[in-house]
Amino acid sequence: MRSLLSLVALSLSLFAAAEPTISPYALHEKRIVLPQGWSYGRKHAAGSALPLRFALTQQNIEEMEKYVMDVSHPHSPNYGKHWSVKDVLEKFSPNRETVKTVHDWLTENGIEKERIRLSPNKGWIEVDATIEEAEALLQTEYSVYSHVSGKEHVGCSEYHLPSHVKRHVDFVTPTVHFDARLTSRSSETTPQTQPQSVIPKSFRGGPKSAGKYAESIVPTDLSTCYEYITPDCLRALYSLNYTPVATADNTYGIVEYTPEAYLQTDLDMFATNFSTDLYGVAPYMVSIDGGYAQTEYQNFSYNGESDLDLEYGMTLVGSEQTVTLYQAGDMVEGASFNNFLDAIDGTYCTFEGGNNYTQDAYYPDPYGGGYEGPQDCGTAKPTNVISTSYAYNEADLTEFYAARQCAEYAKLGLMGVTVLYSSGDYGVAGNDALCLFPNGTQSVNGTLFNPTFPSTCPYVTSVGATMMKPNATVYQYQPEMACEEVIYSGGGFSNYFAMPSYQAEAVEYYLKTYPPDVPSYMYNTSGSRAYPDISANGANYVVAIDGEFELVYGTSCASPVNGAIFTMINDARLAAGKSTIGFINPTIYTTNFAALFNDITLGDNPGCGTDGFNATPGWDPVTGLGTLNFTKLVAAWLELS
Ligand SMILES: *[C@@H]1O[C@H](CO)[C@@H](O)[C@H](O)[C@H]1NC(C)=O
Ligand SMILES: *[C@@H]1O[C@H](CO)[C@@H](O)[C@H](O)[C@H]1NC(C)=O
Ligand SMILES: *[C@@H]1O[C@H](CO)[C@@H](O)[C@H](O)[C@H]1NC(C)=O
Ligand SMILES: *[C@@H]1O[C@H](CO)[C@@H](O)[C@H](O)[C@H]1NC(C)=O
Ligand SMILES: *[C@@H]1O[C@H](CO)[C@@H](O)[C@H](O)[C@H]1NC(C)=O
Ligand SMILES: *[C@@H]1O[C@H](CO)[C@@H](O)[C@H](O)[C@H]1NC(C)=O
Ligand SMILES: *[C@@H]1O[C@H](CO)[C@@H](O)[C@H](O)[C@H]1NC(C)=O
Ligand SMILES: *[C@@H]1O[C@H](CO)[C@@H](O)[C@H](O)[C@H]1NC(C)=O
């Protein structure tokens, strides 16, 4: 495994030799069960190299909700006054004591200073250790685990830290986490194709991907939107009729994980039929960790997601507005959400902003006090809106790990970025239709709902899926319902994250007024983060894939569509000299804004042997607040400072 962080050598002179600190070891993290598809392989050779990474605890992270609300709540005097990269680094970077404690512990245990590196954002310490050294440091045993796909992963089932070090470390990798390689999880990363039949409500096996869309002519009028979704159908459904004007100051980011990749020939085929001025136009690609739009492997699994996201994302913002494609991971290692986040946070800026860590020293003091952080993020600045249609089940990750990643999304929000994630395609079940057993195991026979991450992170905006009602037209009142064709909209309640204040009123209203018709033991009723927040159509998308038009289904469709609409709202605000909309949840849940959504009140999201939750008036854990009306929302957002 290759390290994906940029790391800075610690200066030798910074730490004087200290007396060894002796403190008893305590359990830090433990994995109860192996994630689906993995099995124990063999003991790892003691001499093998292991890039150990320590996620250092950050300062002020417990105040995160306060900071985020301060710049994101429309009633706050600081609404829209987003933070710079430097502000974020200074506020949250681990303090000197944290860095020193971990550093000293490592040197006291025989790790030479030259081998210890600190990331420029000061969030991580890395050591190239041997298995033997790591086992001694963490009081654990390393093994090689195998996945049914043939991939291997080095890890352990639990690890320990000395008590004086414990409070300075969020977690250590590689240990109990199976975070990398979203690529190996193909069934969760791809939207679904035909058949068009509705999945039985008691389905357990999950939707299937099947035949191609064979009919040749899609009417260009709006009479068949209930059978074939095209960009014009979406423009009509969401009142998106807008030509951007602030395009030079704006960008729309779509994230893809290699080997999933787009084909230019597919984008061109789509453009020929639906957006002729995009013919020959490619997205602006930012390669992360060796990512590139591979063309060696081509089929629905490799091209479906990227082609869908880019064909609709690019068409809906129009040819004047550049779309940025973050292509993450190479063909060998793939990439995880954390790799992506590493790349667009301050660390990345250090490279792209002109600094060179092999040359530029981090003086006067990399560990707090004197260090000012990168001055300007330059070209690596995250885009104003970022849409991602890939997801984990929350239970795939440890709570520490999910919390750390969630804090990164919060930082993006502080910096004015809107982060959208699709809510999942299996209703109240997790990816691959897995449900939870009370002991934490995931199984198709599980008895508890299985929430999706990052949708359960309170600092992302989670997007569910709707569909046109049978035979409905875009002109009629309430033409949409919760998606019940091929996929079901992911939704429910987190087991890791408490309910953020911005949604408390809406969720409590739902639970009180429309008590869910499923046993309460099946979902978390302790007041946890509820999702999705919003939705958009996710059925019957006409998408050019591998030289043919296919029908595609999924929340994978919904997220890039809403991302395009928010990008246009940003355009209007930027043109008016205002800030980007940033983290939108505190705004959209206010009474004023919630009333502007197209409320979805029909349908449900089955899973785990139940009918799931119901779409109801107001917010619900199927379609959130509802779908967007651009005309209404842009007007409301232009009224904010
Ligand atoms: C795309 O346009 C071609 C040429 O006009 C037409 O034959 C084809 O049916 C169209 N496909 C779709 C899906 O609209
Ligand atoms: C969106 O809002 C506008 C302005 O109120 C309204 O005229 C239009 O009918 C709405 N569109 C939809 C699809 O509901
Ligand atoms: C695409 O090809 C890969 C590997 O050849 C295969 O595992 C996968 O099932 C294929 N996907 C589809 C939709 O045919
Ligand atoms: C950093 O500087 C070194 C030494 O001059 C050079 O070899 C390397 O290519 C530079 N790296 C970047 C990212 O500019
Ligand atoms: C968890 O519970 C399920 C259902 O009772 C059982 O089949 C499984 O073996 C348990 N797994 C572990 C690791 O305890
Ligand atoms: C789920 O339950 C069915 C019926 O009891 C059984 O045949 C199947 O093996 C179980 N599947 C798993 C993954 O435990
Ligand atoms: C939709 O329209 C078709 C053709 O008119 C009709 O056969 C079908 O029953 C209608 N479906 C519903 C749900 O109304
Ligand atoms: C329910 O969610 C809360 C977080 O809001 C968490 O602390 C608790 O452990 C969860 N309960 C279960 C059974 O997972």
Strand content: 15-25%
User: What distance lies between the first and last C-alpha atoms, to the nearest angstrom?
Assistant: 47 Å
Low-confidence stretches: 1-18, 180-212, 347-380
The largest pleated sheet is described as: 8 strands, mixed
What is the share of helical residues? 25-40%
CATH architecture identity of the largest domain: 3-Layer(aba) Sandwich
Task: Tell me what you see in this structure.
- By secondary structure, this protein is of the alpha/beta class.
- The chain is 26% helix and 19% strand.
- The protein has 17 helices and 26 strands.
- The strands form eight sheets. Strands 11, 12, 13, 14, 16, 20, 21 and 24 form an eight-stranded mixed beta sheet that branches. Strands 1-5-6-4-10 form a five-stranded antiparallel beta sheet.
- The longest helix has 21 residues, at 555-575.
- The protein is globular and about 75 Å long.
- Residues 1-18, 180-212 and 347-380 have low confidence and may be disordered.
- The structure holds 2-acetamido-2-deoxy-beta-D-glucopyranose (8 copies).
- Residues 216-218, 273, 542, 549 line the site of one 2-acetamido-2-deoxy-beta-D-glucopyranose.
Chart the SSEs and their pairings.
Blueprint lengths: L7 E2 L15 E6 L7 E6 L5 E8 L7 H9 L12 H8 L3 H13 L7 E3 L5 E7 H8 L4 E5 L4 E4 L2 E5 H4 L2 E5 L12 H4 L41 H7 L14 E6 L6 H11 L9 E5 L11 H18 L5 E6 L8 H8 L1 H7 L32 E4 L3 E2 L5 H16 L3 E5 L12 E2 L5 E2 L8 E2 L7 E8 L11 E3 L9 E7 L2 H13 L14 E4 L2 E4 L3 E5 L2 E5 L2 H21 L9 H4 L2 H4 L35 H10 L2
Parallel strand pairs: 11-13, 11-14, 12-13, 14-16, 16-20, 20-24
Antiparallel strand pairs: 1-5, 2-9, 3-7, 4-6, 4-10, 5-6, 7-8, 15-19, 17-18, 20-21, 22-23, 25-26
Helix pairs in contact: 1-12, 8-9, 9-14, 14-17
One 2-acetamido-2-deoxy-beta-D-glucopyranose binds next to strand 22.
